[in-house]
């Protein structure tokens, strides 16, 4: 072992990224490439009465104006779309309009400017119908979805209704969170090229395998005919977990023009047709006995979806697992609105749900006059509440302790408005963070070449999180090679299959496969050496040989050594190749598997302006073993930053009459900037979850956002005595009487 795994190794792709050598989807060039722009509806519901395309088609450089009148007819899909990769799309197959901003045409030209100019000459006549856009009135027709992404919509045990009414201390309230839109730095981008009946797509995606399957399904062609390539992704956060309409539209346009077609979404097109986090309305009711033990919890969630595909924000799943409680009832309902379909957005469910639950727990703590952290400890779940299963590993108590100590929680006084800094009201708040530990089957190939260096191939992807780096680290240790002699090739659907980089599962799924393939490759190398009469290791048993820094060594006598390259050269120079699969097994039945954390926030509120500044966040996390100390910390910082945005800034505003997003740009859709971010202190408690996977590592992509909004909202209450139950906490809400 070289001890690479766990170290704070710099990103192996860092140099390529900062020098511009890393090619993102839109950076790829091909001979005869053509540029496309996507045109969208300007009504929320109805049909296209007519569209005049002549002027656009005759504009300079135009190769194709594709509308529902001339778009290739795609095979009818027999079954419902299968998220995440495959979604119900808008592919110009009919004249119907189902939301404002729905794709209705694609214009292809020699240059992007020509395509955009021609698109401005398109003339649509709409036949509008009355859209459903009012969430509140639509709630009357809320319905139960078939399922959430990973769970049933309703889960209950005990008798929450009766236990609630019996509880001496009760708290019930409604918490709401707004629609939010993904804004990765790199917008969605697709470059599609046909070669005969074979389709190659460079796409900014969180799942090359899923995008490939979705494209094959939409075109009705075998998956072998489709290749999706995505070596670098400038952020995903869930929106790039699905192949949305533009991906297929680019391929349709490429087929029709017989040219490679590049289609990059404009920033404003990121709002609506590529998913978003839906708003939520969450009713929480908690009941506790006089000792502060939870007797009952109810959590009822309503969120909107589109008129053509169900997608639920699973906010109440946290209430099913976070605290010990004998009587629990959780429900999820949907309402259909004339909007695009919502989708996964960093910690879908847990982000919004942990806000509501953890704000409600804070309110209960005030009612009970118990310290909020103490209330969490009194209700600590020693096993999974619903199933009674043990946790694979859980160090949340250690997180509470470590976080409280680093933060200085003990200086918090149990009175609102008790801390000041000049005019500023200071508040301290905390909340629990949690996210499930997910894992799916993954495959990897490891090849040791004639020069003794190694190549790893896997159809996973690096969405900015550090996949290249952790795969390098794990392979280095398993092979006994220095990290700089390992080349990691990912982001290509032709490599061995791996899951979507969603649900925080890439590290946990992929690294065990890489480790297994690397160990097999090393085993083959050792076998060649000990069988070779010319090797200093000849005749040793395999167990008597170790691999360090590109050498095979006799464990008993390190002076007996053979370089990787020498072993291969003497055996004829043929590369060694090993493939392996790693997948979850029975541990899923035996254990409940989650990551946890404790988040502490200090805010300063200006009482005159209602402005909230987050001065400090301390987060302590229980995530299993950490594969890279630096990228892991960065991941958590990124999640916390987003949590600050969720608490104070982000909201997608839809005009209630037109259904159009009115702030579809980064000037008016506020995300935190450097000036909004002060001190973020991230700690990991020591843990190694061998019950979960061989690396002992649970995923960390999403937990960072969870709990943060609640910790901030709770701190704002501590500072001001004002309880804002409607995110984001903007100044107007604090200035309201
Ligand atoms: Mo994550 S929102 O599952 O990509």
- Helical coverage, percent range: 10-25%
Alpha-beta classification = alpha+beta
Query: What value does the Rg take, in angstroms?
Result: 27 Å
Which strand order does the major sheet show?
Answer: 3-5-1-12-9-10-11
Please state the overall shape, judged from the principal axes of the Cα atoms: globular
Bound molecules: dioxothiomolybdenum(VI) ion
Number of strands: 27
The count of helical stretches stands at 17
Averaged pLDDT? 97
Provide the β-strand percentage band: 15-25%
Instruction: Identify low-pLDDT runs.
Output: none
Describe the sheet with the most strands: 7 strands, mixed
Distance between the termini: 63 Å
Write the layout of secondary structure elements.
Blueprint: H1 14-18, E1 34-40, E2 46-52, H2 54-58, E3 62-66, E4 96-97, E5 103-109, H3 112-120, E6 123-128, H4 135-138, E7 155-157, H5 160-166, E8 169-177, E9 189-195, E10 198-203, H6 208-219, E11 226-229, H7 245-257, E12 261-264, E13 280-288, E14 294-305, E15 328-336, H8 350-368, H9 372-378, H10 396-407, E16 419-421, E17 424-436, E18 442-448, E19 454-458, H11 467-479, E20 486-490, H12 506-531, E21 545-548, E22 551-554, E23 561-563, H13 564-570, E24 576-582, H14 587-590, E25 594-605, E26 612-622, H15 629-648, E27 679-684, H16 708-720, H17 731-735
Parallel strand pairs: 1-12, 10-11, 14-15, 19-20, 26-27
Antiparallel strand pairs: 1-5, 2-4, 2-6, 3-5, 7-15, 8-13, 9-10, 9-12, 13-14, 16-17, 17-25, 18-19, 18-24, 21-22, 22-23, 25-26
Helix pairs in contact: 8-16, 11-12, 15-16
Bound molecules: dioxothiomolybdenum(VI) ion.
């Amino acid at each position: 072992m070289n001890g690479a795994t766990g170290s704070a190794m710099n990103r192996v792709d860092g140099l390529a990224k900062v020098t511009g050598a890393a090619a993102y989807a839109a950076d790829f060039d091909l001979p005869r490439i053509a540029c496309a722009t996507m045109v969208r509806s300007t009504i929320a519901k109805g049909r296209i009465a007519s569209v005049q395309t002549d002027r656009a088609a005759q504009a300079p450089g135009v190769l194709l104006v594709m509308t529902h009148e001339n778009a290739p007819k795609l095979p009818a899909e027999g079954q419902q779309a299968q998220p995440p990769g495959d979604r119900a799309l808008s592919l110009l197959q009919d004249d119907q309009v189902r939301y404002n901003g729905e794709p209705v045409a694609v214009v292809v030209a020699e240059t992007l400017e020509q395509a955009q100019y021609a698109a401005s000459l398109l003339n649509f006549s709409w036949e509008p119908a009355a859209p459903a856009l009012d969430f509140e009135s639509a709630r009357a027709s809320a319905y139960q979805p078939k399922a959430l992404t990973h769970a049933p919509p309703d889960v209950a045990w005990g008798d929450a209704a009766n236990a609630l009414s019996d509880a001496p201390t009760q708290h019930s309230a409604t918490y709401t969170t707004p629609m939010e839109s993904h804004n990765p730095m790199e917008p969605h981008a697709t470059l599609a090229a046909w070669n005969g009946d074979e389709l190659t797509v460079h796409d900014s995606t969180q799942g090359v395998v899923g995008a490939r399957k979705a494209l094959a399904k939409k075109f009705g062609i075998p998956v072998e005919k489709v290749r999706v390539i995505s070596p670098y992704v400038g952020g995903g956060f869930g929106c790039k977990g699905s192949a949305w309409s533009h991906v297929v539209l680019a391929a349709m346009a490429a087929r029709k023009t017989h040219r490679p077609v590049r289609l990059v979404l404009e920033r404003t097109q990121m709002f609506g047709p590529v998913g978003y986090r839906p708003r939520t309305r969450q009713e929480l009711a908690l009941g506790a006995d006089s000792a502060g033990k939870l007797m009952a919890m109810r959590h009822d969630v309503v969120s909107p979806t589109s008129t053509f595909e169900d997608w639920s924000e699973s906010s109440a799943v946290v209430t099913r697992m976070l605290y010990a409680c004998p009587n629990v009832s959780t429900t999820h309902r949907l309402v259909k609105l004339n909007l695009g379909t919502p989708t996964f957005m960093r910690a879908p469910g847990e982000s919004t749900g942990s806000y509501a639950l953890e704000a409600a727990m804070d309110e209960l703590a005030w009612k009970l006059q118990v310290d909020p952290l103490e209330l969490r400890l009194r209700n600590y779940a020693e096993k999974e509440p619903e199933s009674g299963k043990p946790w694979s590993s859980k160090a949340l108590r250690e997180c509470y302790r470590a976080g409280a100590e680093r933060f200085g929680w003990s200086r918090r006084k149990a009175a609102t408005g008790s801390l000041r800094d000049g005019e500023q009201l200071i508040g301290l708040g905390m909340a629990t963070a949690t996210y499930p530990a997910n894992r799916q089957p993954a495959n990897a190939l490891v090849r040791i070449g004639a020069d003794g260096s190694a190549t790893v191939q896997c159809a996973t992807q690096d969405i900015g999180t550090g996949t290249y780096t952790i795969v390098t680290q794990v392979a280095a240790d398993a092979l006994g090679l220095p990290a700089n002699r390992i080349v990691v090739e990912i982001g290509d659907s032709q490599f061995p299959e791996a899951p979507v980089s969603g649900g925080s599962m890439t590290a946990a799924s992929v690294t065990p496969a890489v480790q297994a393939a690397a160990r097999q490759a090393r085993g083959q190398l050792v076998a060649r050496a000990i069988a070779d009469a010319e090797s200093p290791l000849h005749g040793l048993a395999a167990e008597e040989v170790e691999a360090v820094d590109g050498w095979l060594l006799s464990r008993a006598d390190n002076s007996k050594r053979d370089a990787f390259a020498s072993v291969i050269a003497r055996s004829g120079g043929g590369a060694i190749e090993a493939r392996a699969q790693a997948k979850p097994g029975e541990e899923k039945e035996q254990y409940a598997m989650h990551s946890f954390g404790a988040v502490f926030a200090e805010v300063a509120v200006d009482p005159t302006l209602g402005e909230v500044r987050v001065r400090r966040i301390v987060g302590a996390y229980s995530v299993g073993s950490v594969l890279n100390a630096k990228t892991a910390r960065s991941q958590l910082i990124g999640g916390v930053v987003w949590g600050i945005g969720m608490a104070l800034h982000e909201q997608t505003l839809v005009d209630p009459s037109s259904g159009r997003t009115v702030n579809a740009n980064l000037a008016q859709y506020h995300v935190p900037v450097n000036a909004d971010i002060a001190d973020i202190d991230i700690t990991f408690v020591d843990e190694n979850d061998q019950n979960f996977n061989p690396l002992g590592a649970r995923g960390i992509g999403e937990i960072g956002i969870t709990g943060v909004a609640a910790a901030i909202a709770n701190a704002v209450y501590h500072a001001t005595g004002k309880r804002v139950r409607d995110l984001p906490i903007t100044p107007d809400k604090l200035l309201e009487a």
